[in-house]
What does this fold into?
Amino acid sequence: MRPARAPRADPPWVRRVPPVLRPDPGRVVTRLFLPGQEMVTSGESRSTAVLARVLALDDDEVERELRDLTDDFGHRHHDLASTWDAHFGLVRHRLAQAEELSANRRRLVGAYFTQEYAVESAALFNPSMVPHPDQSGLAAGSTRFVMTVRGTGEGHVSSLELRTGTIDAAGTLALDAGPTHARQPLVTDPRYARAVFEHELDEDPDDDHGNADFVLSMLGREFGRSDLDRAYGELRAQHLTRGSALRTVERFERVARRCYDVAFPADSAVRERVLMPQTPTESHGVEDVRMVRLEAADGTTTYLGTYTAFDGRGIAMQLLTTQDFEHLSSRPLSGPGARDKGLAVFPRQIGGRYVALSRADRESNAITTSDDLLRWGPPVVVQRPELGWELVQLGNCGPPIETERGWLVLTHGVGAMRTYSIGALLLDLDDPTLVVGRLEHPLLTGTGDERSGYVPNVVYSCGAMMHGRTLVVPYGSSDTATRFVLVDLDPLLDALRSSGTSATTRLNRHDPAQPIEGAP
It folds into this structure.
């Protein structure tokens, strides 16, 4: 093991460029607000007490209060009145004669059960970038992009945000004007995939496979909520011969709760859209989306985004799928390759299989494969921490990028003083478990004010985009803001090729055919 100190100066073919995208504490969404659920001295809940006070207001007070609230908050949201109406609908069961209330009083009740939440008040970081599905109307040599960013607000809750922009032939990068409002999606009824349930239940050591197989046998390759409920009914009907039906249903429900579909309003701009946590598994965070444009053999494309779901205690990997960034589906990932954070899918199949980068052992870069994008097999290590700037751990900085010389992988390494740097790795096009080269020194390390923030001394990306012969790398700085760097591709590939022989020699000390320790 030979430690290598990283030089602070960037290579001449690495150029930091504007703009800097900083968190905006004024970007807010609405959320249902329920006063504390503890009991007051009267024995009634606080929600009931608040309702009683609002109902006690006279009509003039209702009109005045509603007018003032609209003046103060209406410009910060799209159609705030509809939100108030919807929130009234969620608490109307507490009112004996709700239908007798005036429209304005109902709306005011809804306002008292609404709060603002600043989705990026703490940070806006860890971006990934892909070509926009609409490339029309651009000047020659320009590319329009979609960028995912992680917004973090009160309680360290993380959400997925979207931004759009262009980069022109001269390498000038411009973000579209900031969003006017933050728009949230509507949750729609999901179409479940039987394979998701099969994979998840196979990993449950306590599962009664007899009952599970019985339920699965009544479900098609894809099915809806009513089909699942019908299968539950058949299982319960056989309670005399099939015990533990309730436990089987709960196991299925745990999987079902991790599956959801959402649709953003058709009149919303991409840059307005915010996906907040939707399920208990991700209640504390939709974290570090690694977006890739996956191209099928027939040339059709789908956008995939792997992300870390965090519930405040544990993590799980999820997969977002979309064609247009308006309709999104989220499904759970399973298998030894999907353990821990940082799964990043290659942009096409290799040898008829889906391939992804994995860090299942929490410190090494590895390759894992899948037949269906849902279950990922035992990972094969391709890079272990060896250099001074990466001795704590390694990981990837997003999906690999295909070049004529190999798969270009941006990596991150953690060194002394918990300093994060971005490096690079080149993998063989036909067999990505073979390393062609790796950088001896970081491609990027935080400098100047980049080193100061919520988590100091961190530079981190979740995915770069090719633009001609330039690599456009958005990156988070110190878990606070998002910045950009342009990397000339050819000198980067030359640097990787010149280091290839020594890198391969080092890796050959480990058997690349062996999966990561702990994987089955």
